[in-house]
Amino acid sequence: MAFNHLPAGVHDALAPLSVTPVTHSVPMAKNHRSDRPPADRPPGPAPGAVLDRLASGPSRASRITHTEHLPPREGRHALWPDRIRPEVLAAVRAAGIERPWAHQARAAEHALDGESVVVATGTASGKSLAYLMPVLSALLDGSEAPNGRGATALYLAPTKALAADQCRSVKELSQPLGHSVRAAVHDGDTPFEEREWIRQYANYVLTNPDMLHRSVLPAHSRWSSFLKSLKYVVVDECHTYRGVFGSHVAQVLRRLRRLCARYGASPVFLLASATAADPAVAARRLTGLPVVEVADDASPRGELVFALWEPPLTELHGEKGAPVRRTATAEAADLLTDLTVQGVRSVTFVRSRRGAELISVIAQERLGEVDRSLARRVAAYRGGYLPEERRALERALHSGELLGLAATNALELGVDISGLDAVVIAGYPGTRASLWQQAGRAGRSGQGALAVLVARDDPLDTFLVHHPEALFDQPVESTVLDPDNPYVLAPHLCAAAEELPLTEEDLALFGPATEELLPQLEAAKLLRRRTRAWHWTRRERAADLTDIRGQGGRPVQVVEAGTGRLLGTVDAGAAHTSVHEGAVHLHQGQTYLVRSLDLEDSVALVERATPTYTTVARDTTSISVLETDTEIPWGDGRLCYGSVEVTNQVVSFLRRRVITGEVLGETKLDLPPRTLRTRAVWWTVAEDQLDRARINPEILGGALHAAEHASIGMLPLFATCDRWDIGGVSVPLHPDTLLPTVFVYDGHPGGAGFAERAFHTARAWLTATRQAIASCECDAGCPSCIQSPKCGNGNDPLHKRGAVRLLTVLLEGAPVEKPGGEEGTDAGAATGTEG
């Protein structure tokens, strides 16, 4: 990849309707501990009966477009390897587990052989026990060492909640082992007085990649005793490490391996993942090591009933008179209310923090009308809460005090919320892997479970509820990450040099782009070469050059203006759209209006209010081509992939009614533009193709714009991305291509791999896009096909029929895909219409 500009982090440092049901095989599994519900709880209601009650209201039954029945499955047992310590086997038997499932035994065998291994089996299939057995055995062996602290192990989770949950489980399981296992959580919530004890005495440290990047690795000399004894590194839920975040984590793990080698250790990596395509390939890319794959799920599962649910059309009309469906938020709140009234323990997953709060508020209000005590048994759970709030909610959920929860994916990732009977998923979560992960939260005790996917008014959601084969007949996606992304790699090279001067022997560890980046980092006076090593030159910490979650700076603190109370935080990258002046902000069921946003001090002042609307930001975008890496002919048009510069500015916000989505008005904003250098896929059409598609100049802009919106909406079906991870621009005549052009770009500096995946699957991707537009029942376009919720141009212009004709002609010239869905060769300023 050519790299002609300094990475962003370095630059900042320099600058102080009805489908016949069909049964399919889907990768799911249930809890390994027992096929019976806990003794203190009666068996849950049959999932089919719960669904029948949900569908019994007026017009409810017609909203179910498809019902999938996954039958129960018997488990296959094996024997633990004889190298597992007998004390560990006894502790596991005391927990009620007599024999392992076959995949657990295989994974433990590889770990004991010193081979890094990824266990890629279904939700609740016992992946934790598969890696814990060799880990606990090693810790027990180490406790008998005559000198020193003995063997240590490191556990990495993508969320604090998961690490805390796993720590509880480890302590319970290892209680018979006495003080041989000293497990402790080391994260941002850990009191400073506890951290020194953890460094000196803990032999099983549970943390997250962020803490490893910012705290452990920069202070490696204080962790030397732990690192030199490091036997195993557990990477849990590793399928979540995708895109920019995954690329950062890959480099953090390389820094960890380098420091371990410095202290004489070579840890074995044990990875756990929900069922994924090519898990060994993704694990190798993440760790930089050879990894053995264990993917044959031998655990049992209970019955799963999975319903696809489409909210009805309302009598209201949205932008340009388009028909409006009832929102997934309102529909999911109704379902959560009904489940709570029935006494069905459930979680409703929603993609946004605001959505989680809204669903909780609506359900509480409706439950209060039935029984005031029920309203207190529903809550919201999301990122941005203060630590004490999160812990209280987790305790209430574990105890059963809460019957229903509206949650973001903070609760998706393996947290043991056993005893749930149902899961409602408000909007497709972006990937099939996440869909099955969320659905698997119910029925974790081996009982039957109900999952309901409620479609949003969105091209992809609408397509999926009417094409169930796209969910139930397809494997989960490949994990996309790019550790060689220079915007990711450069700050990690700086961090590594501060930890320990970089030598030429280190270059291979960090990847082929390293040699090209080092001279640029020298020129920027960030690194200095002395003899055979590169040294960090600045006083500030190199680890602070980058936020590994790609959030782009300090989180914005949300402060109540009247009291000065800190309510929570918002990611810096989302501040312009979520806490701009006039925005509606929800926190713990309370509604606030943003009075002011101070970007310099990263503070948003809010005040209590009771608006009858929500707010949605609008922005404008321009794009220029920096470099075309590869291009292939599509008839007279071209399909291209390369580097672009995107300039984006939030210019206004809409006020919409909460339940209906009706637009009440628009208010202008004055916020600074932001520039992004990233990767994009784009396609052009020639004049002859426009003639064949009967596209005249009057409808050209609308046809391109409609195709752009729909293609962004459909891309998550082909890449492990979310529509909010990507952006788009369509231009009737772009100055860099001199042709009508549609761009789809990664919304992260340097790219995240999504645009590259779009380039390689373009024929299938754009074919599905055309089908989604053509099959929609509306006349001129609606949110289910070509309207976008984040369009900076107010969804104007759009031309539905023109988009279908344009894509038809474009696809006529598309080359035949190679096996594996790739086309062509492997790829390493005009204001337009933005999606």
From TrEMBL:
GO terms for molecular function: helicase activity. Residues 335-487 form the Helicase C-terminal domain. Residues 826-835 have a biased composition (Low complexity). Residues 108-294 form the Helicase ATP-binding domain. Residues 65-78 have a biased composition (Basic and acidic residues). Transmembrane segments: none annotated. It comes from Streptomyces edwardsiae. CDD domains: DEXHc_Hrq1-like (cd17923), SF2_C_Hrq (cd18797). This is DEAD/DEAH box helicase. Keywords: ATP-binding, Helicase, Hydrolase, Nucleotide-binding. InterPro entries: DEAD/DEAH_box_helicase_dom, Helicase_ATP-bd, Helicase_C-like, Helicase_put_actinobac, HRQ1_WHD, MZB, P-loop_NTPase. The keyword Transport does not apply. Residues 27-78, 815-835 are annotated as: Disordered.
